Amino acid sequence: MIDCLLFDVDGTLVDTNYLHTAAWHRAFLRHELVVPSWRIHRAIGMGGDQLVPHLVGEKAEADLGEKIRQAWAEEYEPLIEFVHPFEGAHRLLAEAASVDILVVLASSGPPEHVEHYIDLLDARDIATAWTSSQDVSTTKPEPELLEVALGKVPADRAAVVGDSVWDCDAATRLGLPAVGTLTGGTCRAELVDHGAITVYEHLDELRADLKDLAFVRLEDA
Predict the structure, then answer these.
(1) How far apart are CA 118 and CA 144, in angstroms?
(2) What band does 82 get if pLDDT is binned at 50, 70 and 90?
């Protein structure tokens, strides 16, 4: 029986992916690196330590990686005011807690961003634990974030809820089942190809299926 859900935050619970895409696009342009927005969007879900070399190569990472990440932080800061929770996000978290599933917000975002999102989600009294970039040295698709998140709670069996293939890859590497959402803009087929055992279009659909998901589908995954 699933007793813990590790929720990705950006793109899964709060609508940030396209804002992140714009911020990364501008950050690369500051350093005369033209990266098509579609490629950036497909990399969203990786942490910045993984995203930069993935998109522009190891040499650019070695020469400019930290400067690009700093530029992203500066470009994203004025956009954060436009972030809103997805419809049903709070209801999903509250319902999970009400059926005795531990709620963990597994984010590698900057601590101040994570704190802001927790307040937007009204989740301080719901989440048992959460993570931020201060907790990890490597980010998705590496599984360290999920390992750290699991270490914060007394869970026996957990599953991951996320919107990106990187969430699914990290879950698979750790041997955890992954549940996909379409909220981040990745298609159902890709999420399934990367290991998602089921995919939901809307968070309220996941909430409505939560008991069956926890007690039936994931049990057989």
Answers:
(1) 21
(2) very high
